[in-house]
């Protein structure tokens, strides 16, 4: 099953296709025309501000690469798509679904489950399983889904929210989960690291994380939630927190076969995605003053050149956390303690 799933991920069509409407509402057509045009990229918005990454074909390819990367890294697990021990789920929610890849794969793997993927923009999909629903919505607004979820999945939402909005989001997740339901989130660091000295200390690669973090702080949507989202999840009331830390290689330099394959995919993830990840932040909030589009493009070109050096062995960290909403019986026991 895992091998077939990987092959399907590698060969999934990327052409734009039809969009499944939500309860007969033609919201996708309307929202696909909204957004903020900035430096020849379109950034989706539903409120007074937009996403800091564009909703264009290049970023959708980046999302697909990150999905395949995470799948390969955990391909030896019984279930590479999520680690939470969810039993007999009926309803699963994917927040920040991007291209919808994770939601589609979970729906394909569990045909008896209704899987909803939600994001600010309609993804370019040409097929989804009948038990998968992709929706355009603002998850910071009150949720209107009637059925409680058995699993809420989140991934790569760094710099998407303010700290207050992050707490609000986890409270929404908690409120709309079944008692005993699970939350799971996967985040990656923007800081590139090297353990063996193969990259010089003055490499521009080590500048990336610091520079983008400063810009995101100015926007009040901080990067670096990988270090804090576990604490935020527990603050919302979740228990039985489990953590899995990773070192994701950039490039096919590891000797381990799985990591080599993952590194090759991650290399493409970075090459394709760097301009999209940085253009908004650096042209709006660059240090010491906002950059021009051309300055960002030169910076990204320098990053790509150094990443393309086969002699350097660099990586970035990632962290997966899953936690459980207490059951009603557990709450009764807590309340009965004198």
UniProtKB/TrEMBL annotation:
<protein>
    <recommendedName>
        <fullName>Methyltransferase domain-containing protein</fullName>
    </recommendedName>
</protein>
<dbReference type="Pfam" id="PF13649">
    <property type="entry name" value="Methyltransf_25"/>
</dbReference>
<dbReference type="InterPro" id="IPR029063">
    <property type="entry name" value="SAM-dependent_MTases_sf"/>
</dbReference>
<feature type="domain" description="Methyltransferase">
    <location>
        <begin position="92"/>
        <end position="181"/>
    </location>
</feature>
<dbReference type="GO" id="GO:0008168">
    <property type="term" value="F:methyltransferase activity"/>
</dbReference>
<dbReference type="InterPro" id="IPR041698">
    <property type="entry name" value="Methyltransf_25"/>
</dbReference>
